[in-house]
Every structure is written in structure tokens, then in C-alpha cells.
Amino acid sequence: MIKIETINKYLEANNLPADKGYLLKDKGEGNFIAKWDAKVKRPTDAQLAGYVEVVERDEALKHWKRQMSHTDAGLPRFAEDIIDVLTDTQRAALPSDLRARHTAKKTLRSGKP
User: Could you tell me where the beta strands, DSSP code E, fall in 1-113?
Assistant: First the structure.
């Protein structure tokens, strides 16, 4: 478990201001799992369990945008919007790989930092 003191040492070692907001990232899967806004509320030690890396919000957003741009190659945003307005019957008629890409994109989009 990582304690708040460990986070503070990381911030200090990397010359990062402690009063800025950060996102906590799971190193294994790379998913952003908690927002930490130091101006509002610091997480408890229990909330920090399993969090292994601190990433600044700007970097988190850049990472998310890169991931989204990779998915745009297989399914551009305009096509995603068209699929969103289809009825369930029309959607069911789409190829399964297209439906899977659409679902993956919607899932990624919902995780925007």
C-alpha cells in the first residue's frame, strides 16, 4: 500500500507542486483509477492501496487523446455518431467487429480524465 507520505516524497523528488491536482494511475493496466485534487481533499491511505504511479492531469489527458486518436483510424467520430442514432435492430445488422470497435470507443470515451 502506498501512503500519502510516499506520494508527497514522489512529488518532492520530481519537483511537482503538492497543491496541484493529479490522477492516480494503475501501473499494470495503465487505467486511471482515481482523481486527487489536493486543493479539495487528499485520499486516505486505504484509497491509495494499489495506486503505484502519479500522473499529472495534463499528461493523463494527452494519453487519453492519443488512445482516442488510435481508435479513430478504425472508426471515425462521424461514424460513431451515426451508429449512436441507429435503432437496436439497425445496430444488430452491423458487422460484429464494427459493433465491438464502437463499444470499445464508447468505453474509452467514458473514461476521459
Answer: 21-25, 32-37, 53-56
For residues 9 and 52, state if they share a domain.
yes
CA–CA separation, 72 and 101 (whole Å): 10
pLDDT tens per residue across span 38-86: 555 566 665 565 555 555 666 778 888 888 888 888 889 999 999 999 9
Specify whether the CB–CB gap between 33 and 52 falls below 8 A.
Answer: no
C-alpha cell at 21: 491536482
Is 27 inside any structural domain?
yes
Distance between CA atoms of residues 60 and 44, nearest Å: 22
